[in-house]
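Researcher: Re-running this chain for the archive, since the previous output was lost when a drive failed. Same request as before.
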Amino acid sequence: MDKKSFTKGMLLGTSGTLLVAMVLGLALVLTGRVGVPVSSRVEGNRDLRQKVERKAKELETYIDRYFLDQIDGDRMADSIYKGIIDGLGDTYAAYYNKEEFKQIQESTSGIFCGIGAYISADTKTGIVSIVKPMKNSPAEKAGVEAGDLIYAVDGKEVTGMEISKVQALVKGEKGTKVELTLIRDNRQKKVKVTRDEIQEDTVAYQMLPGKIGYVQVTSFEQVTPEQYNQAIKALEKKGQKGMIIDLRDNGGGLLDAAVSMADRILPKGLVVYSKDKDGEKQEFFAEDQDEFKKPLVILVNENSASASEVFSGAIQDEKAGTLVGTQTYGKGIVQSMFDLGDGTGLKMTTAKYYTPKGRDIHGKGLTPDVKAELTEEISTLSDGKTKVDSQMKAAHDYLMEQCR
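Model: Regenerated structure tokens:
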């Protein structure tokens, strides 16, 4: 795109409000009058342009006459950009401003500089609270506790603030300090925390009775394959006879991470492939010699989606393991992230993926080999100590039979 032409389109008009200039610019973008290549994919260009222009002028009239406050130009611009992407009708598409894009990049990397605590905001009261500090994190070392209410960050009250803005205040450069004003037991407490590099734990593991290894993967981020490989190595050293990989409630993440992790289980060969709007095919392979040859169960449920289904589908197609649980979510489409070069970003659906045997699971999901519903029943494993839910019990029982 010609940036000069685009800027010109956005600034057209002399009627005095930023809104009309921007909306007219949007009309030019949608209808191709600034040479945007999407014009051939939008029907009724002329009618659409006229309709948008009329509506923009009408909105301008009302704003000039009635709007009380000053217009925030940056916020208005972001709204226009978001509107273009929202108009695609793609549930998973989004335009990210600089602050949002930075947070997205940090969340997918699994590494950021902050205090190492999960926080949440009550949608009704706006009260911000600590869900829990991460183990050995700066927050935990400074005495921050689960359940603490965050009243202010560096003296700025955060009640009612969007959670992303609170997170932005808490994060910062490594070695810098941030002061949290906390409320605990109805008393106010100020805590200074030194920010540090935080690596999120996306993998947890333990050895279950019968030498059955258990690996829980909560998401597929940049740090996940290394954590996953370390978990498998540790369980192998302890002599595991079989393994459960728990992908329940794992909504996905990075495709590359899922492929890398499947590579650790599968022999050389195709893991997944995708096709874009032009039918162009891209293939992803298991390439190294590592292969897991012991009995394997992948635990899945209705919230196992996207990258979880890439991983599980490849295991199921290659008969390298058994899927236990309930039907998966059925998100078989790929979102690509684009860095727009000015600190902002764009995400949109660009392809559909298929399992090695060509299964299209979008809107369908994966059917487990062994169906196991989650009930309220809590069971105890053979050691008489380890308590698990009904799906974990089904997975463990299955592997115990396979390992005899």
